[in-house]
Every structure is written in structure tokens, then in C-alpha cells.
Write a structure and sequence with these properties.
Layout (H helix, E strand, L loop, with lengths): L3 H35 L5 H15 L17 H12 L4 H27 L6 E2 L1 H7 L2 H6 L6 H20 L5 H12 L1 H4 L4 H18 L2 H27 L5 H6 L6 H13 L4 H14 L8 H22 L10 H8 L5 E2 L4 H24 L13 H9 L14 H14 L5 E4 L8 E4 L10 E5 L3 H7 L3 E5 L27 H8 L8 H9 L3 H11 L4 H15 L7 H9 L2
Parallel strand pairs: 3-5, 5-6
Antiparallel strand pairs: 1-2, 3-4
Helix pairs in contact: 1-4, 2-3, 2-20, 4-7, 5-16, 7-8, 7-10, 7-16, 8-10, 8-11, 10-11, 10-15, 11-24, 13-15, 14-17, 15-16, 19-20, 21-22, 22-25, 23-24
């Protein structure tokens, strides 16, 4: 029988271990919150959500403009979350920043807590991978930004937690397995291009199920759970929008690969922060730890996650990356670090010394990176420090609301559009002259709904469209929010998503009244728009939504997604209308 003293000692030791186990994960969460709060902002792309949410709540659907079915946002689930927040009376921009920050904080803490359970023993829990992730200046920006990064981290954390639970339990119930698959499948609603990540997480679950000997039933439950909702949403997307992926994704699809730019994007992130140093140490410590204790099913999880991260990296390089420094690399980096976000040191002192030496090296690296490494301001590689850009342009340290960008020229354009829309007279098409060509005003076409009072051009899209208001139809020349600009051949090699341009012949042919006299290029564009898939694209996005229209959109969705329009209007006319 143990003595009272030894019992107290054991209790104290258990309490200390419990505190240590929880202190590391939630300490990381606090650091995430503090660093994200200090760098809080909402970029112009995020403010597009406010425009779409306003249309959702007004009954016009998840669209940029009333009367045109375009999926201008990339994350259906993030749009749903923000729509609920707006319905409850919260500003969309404010909700996006705060919910992103809270989701990021919870995700990092939750992942670290789950990771600690992967490693056996009673040693202290240390934030091995967590330090690597939270010390990066790029991470601080996208803990907020108004974009869906926080939601991605939270989804990854939930999926990881359920997969680890699945691995730790023999004979998991079919309900638990189906729930795991359903949560993993939500990734396709967080961002449709997370398919590689979803596949890797599903592969991890399937391998774990196979190791338990119940592979067939578990596989069916996992796959059914993962695909039921995403497939339903995908069919709705194709029938409603006439596209397989969001319009913003179509605009960013390269005309062929962009591997050279993708490698530049890779070096800009991994090279700038010397990430190969901490990642090498993390891999070395993790591989050593796999040889001790009970490694049951851990290699299956780690291997599948690593393969998914590698596939995601290859995809990003192939398409040319993104124009925001670090944004697209952060989720796959989070994926790689999940199993070691927190790590339990081995009990043997000899082994512990080696792990502590590695952790000390990571600590030194993190101090250097956090204190002195930043993206450069002046550059010609088509990659921007997103927060610095918007802070400098707005003149505010924490720009969040559309009104915080009142110093920008396109804010003034939005205000001008709002004033013109409120004035009496027929519906007009206004080209501001700030984005392409000279200022001009025309009589607008007649296919818009009655609520539209003015048609105006724009790029960038977010702040201007919110300031202009819902009764102004915004024509996005860059293509994130326009079905034709998204499919026109690239004008130049520049920032990803900013390389296409809807030039005036195309814009006037579609948006000016049929009585508007056009030059030869404009007449060719007008004829081209009446032919083949160009005509079908107009009907797919503007014709009244009926069962027949839904079915026709489903039928043409694939062709319309991969449709590419020559920039030269004469070539386009011959291609779509024949000689």
C-alpha cells in the first residue's frame, strides 16, 4: 500500500504533467491570437465577401451582381459563416477578421493538443512544430486578413483530431467513421482546390481502418461521409453557375503551366525564411521518435499527411503560386507540421539531450526570423506583402472596413458610381477611365434586372463594389467577378489573378445598348458574343433559373469552365462563329 507521502507525490506529478500537456497547446493559441491581433487587417479580396453577403441577404443569391450568376468567392463555407454573422447584425469585414483570428488560435492550440497524444511517454510536451509555424511573419498576416485561412486551419485541426482518435481506437463505430469522413470532406467546401489535402486525409483514414482489419466497411463509411455533401454542393454549383469551379479559380487558371513563377513563389517563402533548417530538424526528431514506444498506426498518418502536403506543393508550383506572399504555402506547411505541432520528449535523458539540442536550434532560428526577416517592399517578381501594401495605401495601421480605404482612388470611383445610380434618368454604362482607356458614358444594355441603376467598370473589386452599392452592376475587368474576363487569354505576365483584362470592345459589346454604335473591333466582339459557347455562357449566367436552365448548365459546365477566349476579337469571331 503506498504511503500518503508517495500518493501526494504521484498526485502532484500527475497534476504537473496535466498542466504541462495543456499549457503548451494553449500557450501557442495565445501567441497566435496576440500576433494576429497586432497584425489585423482585411485585404481588398476579402472585402468582396461583403458585397456577396449583401446580395445573399437581399435574396439575389450568392452572386457579385444581381442578375448574373457568378461565384466570385472561393470558399462556400466561409461565405455561409459570414452570411450568418451578417444576418445577426455583425459587419462582414469585422466578422471575417475576428472569426479568422479566433479560428486560427483555436486551430493551432487544438492541433498541438492532438499532436501530443500521438507521442507516448511521460516527458514534457514542447511546441516543436508550433514554434516553426507561429513565428513566421507571413502567418501573422493571415491569422486575420479577412480571408478563409483561419477556417482552413480549423478544418485541418478537426480532421486531424478525428483521424488520431480513429487510430487510437480498435473497432471504431460506423457513426464515428462516417463523421470523420464528413469532416474531412468539408475541405472541398472550405476551398475546392483543397482536393489533394482531402484525398491525403482520407487516405490516412483508410490506411488506419485497413490496419484494424475492417477496411471495406470503414472505407465505405469514410468515403460516403466525405463525398455526400461536397458532391451535392458541386451539382448545385454546376447547375446554378454553369461552372465546375468558382469564377475566381477560372480567372487564375494558367494558360498552360507556370512552373517558373511557381518556383519563384516557393523560393520567396521557403528560401526567405530558411525553412529547410527547422523542417529538417523537425523531420529528424520525428523519425527518431517513431523508433521508440508503440508506433502503431502513427507512420500511416504521418506518411499520408506528408504525401498530401507534397502533392499540394506540386500543384501550387504548377499553377504559378499566388500574388500574396506566403498565403498559399501556409496551409500545406500547417499540414506538414500537424503531427509535431507539439511533441513529447522521450524519458531517456540521453535521447532527450539530442531533442533539446534540436529544439534549441529551432528556437534560435525562430527568434531571428520573427525579429528581422520580412518580405521586401520593392520587387518585380509579382509577389506582394499583402498587409504592407494595404496599410501603406490606406494610411491606416489596421484597415478592416471598406471605409478605412477612403484614401484610395477606386474608393472615390465607388462613391461616384453610388451618386450616379441615385440620380434620375435611364440606366447608364459608365467607364471611369481609371482602369482602361478614357472616361465615357453610354446607354446600358437591357438584360439587367430592374434593381440595377448603373453599370460601371472596376479593378480591384472589393472596396469599390461595396462602396458603390448593390444597385450598381460592377464589371470586373480583371475577371475574378466577370464570366468573360475570367476566360480571356492573358494580357501579360504579372500577379496571378491580375493578368487578364476585359478590353473595351468586349465590354461595350456586352454591356452597352444594342443601339450604341461600335467600331470594327466592337462589332466583331458583338457578333462573337452571339455565337456558340460565348452565347451559352451569357445564357448560363443571366437566363432565368428554371429546371431546364439548371439541366442545361449541368450539361455545359465542363466546357464553359475550360472555355478560353482569344484576346483578338477578329480571331474570336472566326473561332466561335465560323468564317
Amino acid at each position: 500500500m503506498p504511503s500518503p507521502t508517495s500518493a501526494k507525490t504521484n498526485t502532484a506529478r500527475q497534476m504537473g504533467a496535466l498542466v504541462a500537456t495543456h499549457a503548451t497547446p494553449w500557450g501557442l493559441a495565445v501567441i497566435v491570437f496576440m500576433s494576429g491581433y497586432a497584425n489585423r487587417f482585411a485585404c481588398d479580396d476579402a472585402i468582396i465577401n461583403a458585397r456577396v453577403v449583401a446580395n445573399v441577404l437581399a435574396g439575389d443569391g450568392p452572386v457579385l451582381n444581381a442578375g448574373e450568376r457568378i461565384e466570385a468567392v472561393t470558399s462556400p463555407l466561409w461565405l455561409l459563416v459570414l452570411s450568418i454573422a451578417a444576418w445577426l447584425g455583425v459587419s462582414v469585414e469585422v466578422a471575417a477578421v475576428w472569426l479568422g483570428l479566433l479560428a486560427s488560435s483555436v486551430a493551432v492550440g487544438w492541433t498541438a493538443h492532438t499532436a501530443a497524444r500521438l507521442w507516448p511517454g511521460e516527458g514534457p510536451v514542447l511546441p516543436l512544430g508550433g514554434v516553426v509555424f507561429v513565428c513566421l511573419p507571413a502567418s501573422w498576416q493571415f491569422f486575420t486578413s479577412g480571408l478563409e485561412n483561419g477556417l482552413i486551419y480549423l478544418w485541418l485541426a478537426a480532421s486531424f483530431h478525428l483521424l488520431v482518435d480513429l487510430a487510437r481506437v480498435d473497432g471504431a463505430s460506423r457513426l464515428r467513421t462516417t463523421l470523420t469522413g464528413a469532416v474531412v470532406g468539408l475541405g472541398l467546401l472550405v476551398r475546392p482546390d483543397l482536393g489533394f489535402t482531402v484525398a491525403g486525409l482520407l487516405a490516412s483514414g483508410l490506411l488506419v481502418a485497413r490496419s484494424r482489419g475492417d477496411g471495406a466497411r470503414a472505407a465505405a463509411a469514410l468515403i460516403l461521409g466525405a463525398l455526400a455533401l461536397p458532391l451535392t454542393v458541386q451539382l448545385l454549383r454546376m447547375g446554378y453557375y454553369g461552372a465546375v469551379v468558382p469564377n475566381s479559380a477560372i480567372a487564375k487558371l494558367p494558360d498552360g503551366h507556370r512552373i517558373a513563377q511557381g518556383l519563384t513563389y516557393l523560393r520567396d517563402f521557403y528560401g526567405r525564411y530558411w525553412l529547410w533548417v527547422p523542417l529538417g530538424i523537425v523531420a529528424w526528431i520525428g523519425l527518431r521518435a517513431l523508433r521508440i514506444g508503440d508506433p502503431k498506426r502513427r507512420p500511416l498518418i504521418l506518411g499520408a499527411l506528408a504525401a498530401a502536403a507534397l502533392a499540394r506543393h506540386a500543384y501550387i508550383v504548377w499553377i504559378g503560386g499566388d500574388f500574396m506572399h506566403g498565403r498559399w504555402w501556409l496551409p500545406p506547411l500547417f499540414l506538414v507540421l500537424m503531427p509535431v505541432m507539439a511533441f513529447r520528449l522521450p524519458a531517456a535523458s540521453g535521447r532527450r539531450r539530442l531533442e533539446l539540442a534540436g529544439l534549441a536550434a529551432i528556437a534560435v532560428w525562430s527568434v531571428i526570423v520573427a525579429s528581422s526577416v520580412r518580405p521586401s517592399a520593392d520587387r518585380d517578381d509579382h509577389i506582394s506583402d499583402e498587409r504592407r501594401t494595404w496599410v501603406e495605401w490606406s494610411g491606416r495601421e489596421h484597415p478592416i472596413l471598406a471605409s478605412d480605404y477612403s484614401a484610395l482612388g477606386w474608393y472615390d470611383v465607388g462613391a461616384e458610381y453610388r451618386a450616379l445610380a441615385a440620380s434620375p434618368g435611364p440606366r447608364r454604362l459608365v467607364l471611369s477611365g481609371r482602369f482602361w482607356g478614357e472616361p465615357a458614358t453610354y446607354e446600358a444594355a437591357d438584360w439587367y434586372p430592374p434593381s440595377v441603376r448603373l453599370v460601371g467598370d472596376a479593378c480591384p473589386l472589393g472596396v469599390l463594389s461595396v462602396v458603390a452599392g448593390r444597385d450598381v452592376f460592377i464589371v470586373d475587368r480583371w475577371g475574378l467577378g466577370d464570366p468573360y474576363a475570367a476566360r480571356i487569354e492573358r494580357l501579360l505576365e504579372g500577379q496571378i489573378g491580375h493578368e487578364r483584362m476585359l478590353e473595351n470592345p468586349w465590354l461595350l459589346a456586352r454591356h452597352a445598348s444594342v443601339d450604341t454604335p461600335l467600331d470594327e473591333r466592337g462589332r466583331s466582339a458583338r457578333r462573337a458574343l452571339r455565337c456558340g459557347l460565348l452565347r451559352e455562357l451569357h445564357l448560363a449566367t443571366t437566363a432565368p433559373m428554371t429546371p431546364a436552365r439548371f439541366a442545361r448548365n449541368l450539361w455545359h459546365a465542363w466546357d464553359l469552365t475550360w472555355l478560353r477566349i482569344p484576346r483578338d476579337v477578329g480571331t474570336a469571331e472566326r473561332l466561335f462563329c465560323g468564317d
